Amino acid sequence: MNGSGKALIVVDVQNDFCPGGALQIKNGDLIIPLINRMMDRFDLVVATQDWHPQNQVSFASNNPGKNIYDQIDIRGIAQTLWPDHCVQGTEGAEFHDDLDLDKFSLILRKGRDPLVDSYSAFIENDRNTKTGLAGYLNALDVREIFICGLATDYCVYYSAMDSLRYGFRCNVIIDATRGVDVPEGNIDAAVSDMKNKGIGVISSDELLR
Predict the structure, then answer these.
(1) Where are the domains of the chain?
(2) Least crowded by CB within 10 Å, which of 10, 31, 35, 196?
(3) Which residue among the candidates 18, 155, 162, 170 is catalytic per the annotation?
(4) pLDDT tens digits, the chain, 209 residues: what are they?
(5) What is the domain class of 13-51+87-112+184-209 according to CATH?
(6) Does 12 participate in catalysis according to the annotation?
(7) Annotated catalytic, 110?
(8) Against a cut of 0.90, is the pTM above it?
């Protein structure tokens, strides 16, 4: 898999998304050994990291009278409310200890604006504020990306869909992701939508064999 034109994007493999975390994803930590092995197959590995301020608008705690998983409208954008998670500088925001950080060429921190959440590695939820990832990849002549990490139906899904917007070929390594599944059935819906849009939904075996 080594070679120019390809990059691996490792999405949000952070303590708060793993078992015991504030927004834990079932078996979220089990994908880490697989991700570590796959990183050896790429010359370029980018990691994303949720990096929220404590007053982030997407936290249910900052919306009196609202509950976790409720939806609110933020300037015309539907926003799911989450438990406080990945707060800047906390242990929950750190990468999981088992993840091999030495392979990362770039760490991209997203969701830093208190008024705008950020699922996608490419653009924030206002659908206007770019993270800079597309420009970085273009400058390095990357044409095809492979995405793994957390969570299948949110940050992985939105990153994959937005990669098409910026002209990249995209593959999601499905067994190296885990999802929130909120609302129920969301993982299956996200995977179906990605396939329908031409995103490759592949197995790690296709990279490691």
Answers:
(1) 13-51+87-112+184-209, 54-85
(2) 196
(3) 155
(4) 445 699 999 999 999 999 999 999 999 999 999 999 999 999 999 999 999 999 999 999 999 999 999 999 988 889 999 999 999 999 999 999 999 999 999 999 999 999 999 999 999 999 999 999 999 999 999 999 999 999 999 999 999 999 999 999 999 999 999 999 999 999 999 999 999 999 999 999 998 88
(5) alpha beta
(6) yes
(7) yes
(8) yes
